[in-house]
Request: fold
Amino acid sequence: MTGSASPLRIGVLASGEGTNLQALLDACDEGRINGHVVLMLTNNPRAGAIVRCKRADVPFAVVDHRAFSERTAFDAVLVEKLRAARIDLVVLAGFMRIISPVLINAFAQRIMNIHPSLLPAFPGKEPQRQALEHGVRFSGCTVHFVDTGVDTGPIILQAVVPVHETDDVETLKRRIQEEEHRIYPQAVQFFAQGRLVLNGRRVTILPEASSLPDSF
Amino acid sequence: MTGSASPLRIGVLASGEGTNLQALLDACDEGRINGHVVLMLTNNPRAGAIVRCKRADVPFAVVDHRAFSERTAFDAVLVEKLRAARIDLVVLAGFMRIISPVLINAFAQRIMNIHPSLLPAFPGKEPQRQALEHGVRFSGCTVHFVDTGVDTGPIILQAVVPVHETDDVETLKRRIQEEEHRIYPQAVQFFAQGRLVLNGRRVTILPEASSLPDSF
Reply:
């Protein structure tokens, strides 16, 4: 997880509308991430993420999971394509397939996910609904490294939003999404800068290199 | 859980230093809670909470749990004393005994607890240590009604604090405690005002009576 001066080669896995993909594309365009999305892989031929890639001239491929009898075979194809594109960091952006150790081990500590809750609260499906039904007063989102559990990996960044009594799943989802679009690019930039260090399951964010003394 | 104009009769159960007890005493004194702590029960003859009661002229009793072979018998004595003092609301303030259904059912939906984490994350013991070891970026505290689970009851109020990379258990504990002393009296006042309504496991906070239209 060391940084380098050369721009980060980002691979995005998406299944849906791709709003987090868009946030990453915008952040790369605007120089907030020292890197580029060089490949987007999707399992869904109708993913909105495809439209965003076409518009931004980003290469993409559709790998239909229904063509594979085993998850590991599907993941092996993803790994092959990611390696061929010399991907430094794999970013899950609404990728609706559980990924297997085949992919996780191929990119150990180089796969990020974002989950719309304050993990470890409300992992898994429909976290916004879970939060509302539990009656919490705050929720948010969590960027984490992916490990073999469901939403259990080391936490990189989190953001908090209030939960209002008048909220339904959609209003809460939108409020959280605004924060997702803010912290996901930030986490990717920390990675690009080589500032993320894993200590056990805790992630330390190093200060910016420019703020370090010369003798560091 | 309906309110009344007469001041709330609060019973506090405490085992330790009693900083949350102090926050409640101060809030009652300053009129931020329409009520009074009319009884403090402790299982610990050396609890700092006792000193605070003496200073504030609040009746207290020591009920040593070691004198009881069963938790239910211990709780039955607490219930007897709370009933004799005509307690409206039981407030757990660092009470280090797990309470049994004997007490919970005697004061159904009239027992509050505060837990130093953003529940449902990190229930049980040493939540600050749990939070640090998990590597979360935010933690906080939760005021909830007590049910028969451990820190599982309906959530009344929560407050959020950042977790810094330089934090240890003590610094995080102190940061959370400041918020505890703010939201616990607030939750008790909502109860005193009759503004807390339980819908399933969600707690709705009604608007202040004075802000309702006359026809309400």
Summary: The radius of gyration of chain A is 17 Å. The beta strands of chain A are 8-14, 35-42, 60-62, 89-93, 111-115, 138-145, 155-162, 196-199, 202-205. Helices of chain A lie at 19-29, 48-56, 71-84, 101-106, 127-134, 169-192.
